[in-house]
Amino acid sequence: MLVAPSILSANFLKLEEEIKSICDAGADLIHIDIMDGHFVPNLTFGPVVLQNIDKICQKPLDIHLMVENVPFFVDLFAPLKPKYISVHIEETKHLHRVIQQIRNYGISPAVVLNPHTSQENLKYIIKDIDMVLLMSVNPGFGGQKFIPNVIEKIKRLKELILLENPQCLIEVDGGVSDKNILDLKNSGVDIVVAGSYIFSQKDYKQAILSLKQ
């Protein structure tokens, strides 16, 4: 199980220190939630805040776009050279075109599904992407409770992936903790995003280990 701490839950007054700490604690990726105040009722940060992140942390970036005007934001954040850029199927009008836009930057494209969105919507695009991000809370805010019926969606998505694109990864974001990590692993999840669970604990290393083990 790979762990991607979400810096949305970090202390922004000491962001550099927080990022260094989670990297030293064993984070596999750094998850970055980009919100525009339109697609979701919240605002986070732009590329200026993150442009020097590679100088303090060599971990791959995992950028999750919760925005309208998706192609514009892909171009805006692609210079950060993240490992993944994830876009919401609910907002992306020309999904295949945006996937190619991301891949043309040398970045792995991923598609996000909100809790109410069926995995069946991925049937004709699954072969073109490297990862599916399933939201296990409604997007926009950290610290929410895990929605249990996402487990069944993970299992069905895993069946689709094994049939159509076995190399595609499954990532889950929202309410992840040591209480549900075993169910997530057994359902076929490859990467978990954890924000408040990790950053609310004094020992980041132990928090990350509790998810990996």
UniProtKB/TrEMBL annotation:
Cofactor(s), names only, from the UniProt record: Fe(2+); Mn(2+); Co(2+); Zn(2+)
One Pfam match: Ribul_P_3_epim
Gene Ontology cellular-component terms listed: cytoplasm
GO biological process entries: pentose catabolic process; pentose-phosphate shunt
Cofactor: binding comment: Binds 1 divalent metal cation per subunit.
UniProt: a divalent metal cation binding residues: 31, 33, 64, 173
Protein name: Ribulose-phosphate 3-epimerase
Organism encoding this protein: Helicobacter anseris
